[in-house]
Design brief:
heterodimer, A: alpha/beta, five-stranded parallel β-sheet, five-stranded mixed β-sheet, 10 strands, B: Elongation Factor Tu (Ef-tu), domain 3, Rossmann fold, 3 domains, seven-stranded antiparallel β-sheet, 19 strands, 20% helix
Chain lengths: 207, 314
Amino acid sequence: MEFHDVPRTLLLLPRMVAPMSNRPRYAPLMPVAGARAHLLVTDHAVPAAQAFDPRCSENDFAERWTVVAHAMVLPQPFGGPGVQHFRSASHLLALLRHRLGAETMGLRLYVAGSEPFVWDAARVAFDAGMGREELHLFACGQPLRRVWCVHCRTVNPGVTTTVATCAGCGVSLSVRDHFSRAQNAWMGVQCDAEVPGDVPAIKDLSA
Amino acid sequence: MMDTQTLTLAVAEAAFVAPGLRRITLVAADGARLPPAAPGAHVTLALPGETRILRNSYTLVGADPCAGYTMIVRRSERSRGGSRHIHEVLQVGDVIEATMPHTLFALHSQAKKHLLIGGGIGITPLLAFVAHLRARGGLFELHQIAGAGEACVFETLLAPRAGERIHVHAGRTGLDLVALLAAQPLGTHVYTCGPAGLMDAVDATAAALGWPRSHVHREDFGAAGGEPFMLRLAASGIEIAVAGDQTMLEAIEAAGVDTPSLCRGGACGVCIVPVREGTPEHRDHFLSEGERARGCHVMPCVSRSKSPVLVLDL
């Protein structure tokens, strides 16, 4: 059977299937017993209290790296206990990659902050050979989705609605509840491919 | 009907690689290709024992569907006759029934580095790992602990694979486990095979250094386990339950009774204990046949009890 012979109703079928979700779930952070060293990294100057288990606070993490987006932040020697400040998330992640490359076994990495930052840091940790037991993640703050356009592969940052216009190819993307840990992005699929202009009601994802 | 879960193998090669170590290569008796096996896999061979068929598991140091399965078998006096059969009776051409290969001890595919720690004949799966990692270009480091006077045996065994990443240590004290495990980069997995004491030490040291459990792999081998039984220590006046997977010596130590021991493998004789009542199941290779028959002494590191209760003069 040729593609054009497929009944139109079959092509529409995926839209009738109940939406599935693989939305990541996060557990509040707490230093785990038995580890040799603990490093907390966050892109929030003051991480939300809900990111931590009620039994602890950010001060219970021996080493804390924080993004303080300010030009007054000067590069400092790093690698010891206490707080380190970074000018940007990319500054922090670059030094995290360098640090983990020289680390030995027994470290636990805790990441709190925006979801894109959390999974960028997780990628750095996975690349360094860390496994899920050594990594603790908590995404918090405003739910801004990084959306991957499946048509042109453009990554659209900061999406807050169920429908967004792709910055690359201009189509209206339906933001599916499907998160790719490899791409660190949510899946965006053209929503009016069958009937051009048939855009569903737009909902706020932060609701 | 043929049972697809068993293999009928024929001995293609058999050679003594060192005193007490015989390497045998088995191919399919009908000349067919053998099922592939992952590095670290083992097969269980059905070997004729004195009274019954013994089923002993041996790690494959090499597994090629055409060239066959290769294993190195240590002659073990405490064995029920399996390794003795392989050493004294087995000839090229003999046919042996075997299970399909099973892998309970596998390399972790996501590891950045593989740290291999072997003790004695526990080197066999590590030899398969080294061959695999060499072929794939994987990062590894091997530390082999050999008993006194045996270092040369393992140096010979490892000679074709020698390199700066392979180290043979004479005795446990030759290897600083804490320093070794503390220096490993992120993404390292450690694999240990050898005496339970060595593997427990690797487990405990890794845990103390904060290694996650999933990065520590061990392969238990040998006849350490058996039926649970009760132990009564006449001098101390205490009764101890010995679990099926626990040695008598471990149970005595767990009860807080101090008793000397050295090799923990039934060889040195240091842990010898007089028996007052009950029938020991001797698994050591220290006592003579006559001493075993009299049943007056037992080596608690490897031996067990034939009677439900064993009373020791301890």
